[in-house]
Amino acid sequence: MDILKAATEWAKAEVFSTRFFIIFAILFLAASAGFWQLGKTELAKAYIILLLVAGGLLMTIGLGLFYTNKVRIKQFEKAYNEDAPAFVASEIARAESTLKEYTVVFKVVPMIIVVAALLIIFMNTPTWRAIGITTIAMMIVILLIDGTAHARIEAYYKQLQSIEKQESKGRL
Questions:
Q1: Most buried residue among 5, 107, 108, 146 by CB atoms closer than 10 A?
Q2: Torsion over CA of 15, 133, 117 and 98, rounded to 10 degrees?
Q3: 41 in the Ramachandran plot: left (φ > 0), alpha (ψ -120 to 50) or beta?
Q4: Contacts for 146 with CB less than 8 Å, ≥ 6 apart
Q5: Rg (CA), the chain
Q6: Is the per-residue pLDDT at 53 higher than 80?
Q7: Using 50, 70 and 90 to split pLDDT, how confident is the model at 141?
Q8: Max Cα separation, the chain?
Q9: Contact yes or no for 22/62 (Cβ under 8 A)
């Protein structure tokens, strides 16, 4: 039963975390509206569409993860009650897969930030500067939220492994 509690707590923490994608999406969308209403310079006008797109992407990520994890919470108890060892094995496999994905994220996102920073330095047009700045802002949001999510899934994975070891010792 410890595994079910751990899985549920992890999924609830993920649901809470994904709300930050939604909050940042709203902030990006509000900034877009602000630039639309108050922006007089060419650079300010360049942010309108870019922040709208970034806000839309963050909203999509946030709502998608929120829904997925809400559904997952309900499925955990059912899967655990049907076949506890299979549930543990599937959660360990899913956690391992997710950890590998985060390794890629933490290599690719900083590279995107570097490219965006180079855009700001070498491109003198307002549109390219706005693209670079908006990209950096969005990638920083993703790194902040994914950094905490990575720490949570890593702790959850270790917890899964220790529970599996305890259960295997109990069976012997």
A1: 146
A2: 10
A3: beta
A4: 102, 105, 106, 109
A5: 21
A6: yes
A7: very high
A8: 73
A9: yes
Q: Give the span between the Cα atoms of 109 and 141, in whole angstroms.
A: 11
**The pLDDT of residue 147:** 92
Is the pLDDT confidence value at 158 over 70?
yes
Sign of CA dihedral 84, 87, 92, 95: negative
Model confidence over 56-114: pLDDT tens digits? 999 999 999 999 988 888 888 888 888 878 888 888 898 999 999 998 899 999 999 99
CA distance 65 to 46: 29
For helices 126-171 and 42-82, angle between their N-to-C axes, nearest 10 degrees: 10
Closest CA to 149 of 65, 91, 23, 30: 65
CB neighbours of residue 56 within 10 Å? 14
